[in-house]
From TrEMBL:
Any Pfam family: MFS_1
PANTHER family named in the record: GLUCOSE-6-PHOSPHATE EXCHANGER SLC37A4, MAJOR FACILITATOR SUPERFAMILY (MFS) PROFILE DOMAIN-CONTAINING PROTEIN
Protein name: Regulatory protein UhpC
Lineage: Bacteria, Pseudomonadati, Planctomycetota, Planctomycetia, Pirellulales
Domain Major facilitator superfamily (MFS) profile: 27-472
Cell compartment(s), UniProt: Endomembrane system
Ranges of Basic and acidic residues composition bias in the record: 228-255
Region (Disordered): 211-258
Entry's transmembrane regions: 21-43, 93-120, 182-201, 285-309, 315-338, 350-374, 380-401, 413-435, 447-469
Key words, A-Z: Membrane, Transmembrane, Transmembrane helix
Source domain of life: Bacteria
Length: 481
């Protein structure tokens, strides 16, 4: 599935062992991130039941405010855990973040006021935010570039597994025990996962006695004079950053050279300030950043789905939680398909493919806005089917391009880059959660969904712009080569 890149003198037995460890690392990250999402979605799965608890005095408005603390924690966490993953390494950050996320759920279970819930939600998301930057470090060490799309697609399905598990397993458990016990259950499962990953998750091949990915080969567009330079690239601090069509635009896309190692990346010799300067000068960074703002808001519609289904369809909180699992189920299906095709599509084809899927997402929001015109006898299955299609249409554009771009463009600063892009998204989600609940509470779901439609259209426009710029950059690099 994800073959290693060895030099010619490596033995077949080492190649086989490398593949086995690649699969082990992939499975470890998969299980770990599913546990992250299980903890993250415990509050969402319990939301309808919590609003029925008279001792809490929660409504849609206060729940939206609570979820805005969720986004605030993610923003603060990304600013710390992104550089932290670059400093500590992926394995340490991953295990630390997962452990603290579970402990925040324990704290939530014993909370009794809005202030405690807000604090635990903030701390839980602060910790969880370290998961994705940590994985960018391990993906860069363990997998060749021409497999990035496949690897990230597969890892992204783990987030949907965790979300579906939260909706189905925790939703079912909610019919048997109190909502507080649900938080303890998800924390216990997560701590078991941490204990297992301690033995199987490794930072890089050298940790298990394997050589790194194959030695670098000169990039096709590297001028001969530059190859002859005896000193490091830090000797050219300004000219390289200012090049409009330099390798900063896509340092490893020149012919998709899978053998280029991380040591050959132009930003590996740059400090964090130089890396930030390179990011700020990239049109793709800004277009995907603002695109992720609106895509994250669409993804965070999941926060309100159990409440929306409970009120719109007149079903119980546990039933609404299980029915809402159709949204992440659609995401799972799309990401699984994406893992087989993403790396085989040209960047130009991706513009049309992902742009078309996001357009389908706009249509799904329109359909949700008009459920009232559907016969009551089929309204529930129609709502579930539309939510499935909505998840199917937006998840590939949300998860994969950002992750692939961060590893390729960021080099050793990939953790910081993916965190910065995520900060864009969580800032939008924080505003959406704070005001979205108030809008639904005071103006109804029709106004709420009208705003969501406008957001989905902006997400389509901006992500298509990023994909077009990315395709243009790759084409210019190939022409230069």
């Amino acid at each position: 599935m994800v073959e290693p890149e060895f030099t010619a003198d490596e033995s077949p037995s080492k190649t086989k062992r490398f593949v086995e460890w690649q699969l082990t690392i992939l499975a470890s990250m998969y299980a770990g991130y599913a546990a992250f999402m299980l903890c993250r979605n415990t509050l969402i799965s319990s939301s309808a039941a919590m609003m029925l608890d008279p001792s809490l005095d929660l409504d849609k408005e206060s729940f939206g405010h609570l979820m805005s603390w969720h986004s605030a924690g993610a923003i603060a966490g990304k600013l710390v855990t992104g550089p932290g993953a670059d400093w500590l390494g992926g394995r340490r950050m991953f295990l630390l973040a997962l452990s603290l996320t579970a402990m925040a759920n324990v704290g939530f279970a014993f909370g009794g006021s809005f202030a405690v819930f807000a604090l635990m939600n903030f701390l839980g998301q602060f910790a969880k935010s370290g998961g994705w930057p940590a994985m960018t470090k391990m993906v860069g060490s363990w997998y060749p570039e021409h497999r990035y799309g496949q690897v990230w697609s597969l890892i992204s399905t783990s987030s949907r597994v965790g979300t579906i598990g939260a909706g189905l397993v925790l939703g079912f458990a909610l019919s048997l025990v109190s909502w507080r016990s649900i938080f303890l259950l998800s924390a216990a499962i997560t701590l078991v996962v941490v204990a297992v990953l301690f033995f199987f998750l490794k930072e890089e091949p050298s940790d298990v006695g394997l050589p790194p990915l194959a030695e670098p080969t000169p990039p096709l567009a590297e001028p001969t004079s530059r190859l002859a330079e005896p000193k490091s690239r830090l000797a050219e601090p300004k000219s390289r950053l200012a090049e409009p069509k330099s390798r900063l635009a896509e340092p490893k896309s020149l012919g998709d050279d899978a053998n280029a190692s991380r040591a050959d990346h132009v930003l590996d010799s740059a400090n964090w300030h130089e890396a930030l300067t390179a990011f700020a000068r990239s049109g793709r960074f800004w277009s995907i950043g603002f695109g992720i703002v609106f895509l994250t808001i669409m993804m965070d519609f999941l926060v309100f789905i159990p409440i929306y289904l409970s009120e719109s369809l007149g079903i119980s909180g546990s039933a609404a939680s299980m029915a809402g699992s159709s949204f992440p189920a659609g995401m799972f299906a799309a990401l699984l398909l994406t893992s087989f095709v993403y790396d085989n599509l040209s960047k130009r084809t991706l513009v049309w493919a992902l742009g078309g899927m996001l357009t389908l997402g706009c249509g799904c929001v329109i359909a949700l806005s008009n459920l009232a015109f559907v016969s009551e006898s089929i309204r529930s299955p129609v709502a579930i089917a539309v939510l499935f299609l909505l998840g199917l249409s937006i998840s590939p554009a949300y998860y994969v391009p950002m992750s692939v771009f961060s590893v390729r463009f960021g080099g050793k600063h990939s953790g910081m880059l993916v965190s910065l892009i995520d900060v864009f998204g969580y800032c939008g989600a924080m505003l959406f959660n704070f005001f979205g609940g108030s809008i639904a509470e005071h103006y109804g779901w029709s106004v709420f969904l009208t705003g969501l439609l406008a957001i989905s259209c902006l997400a389509t426009l901006l992500m298509t712009t990023f994909l077009a710029l990315d395709a243009r950059s790759a084409r210019l690099d190939i022409e230069a080569a």
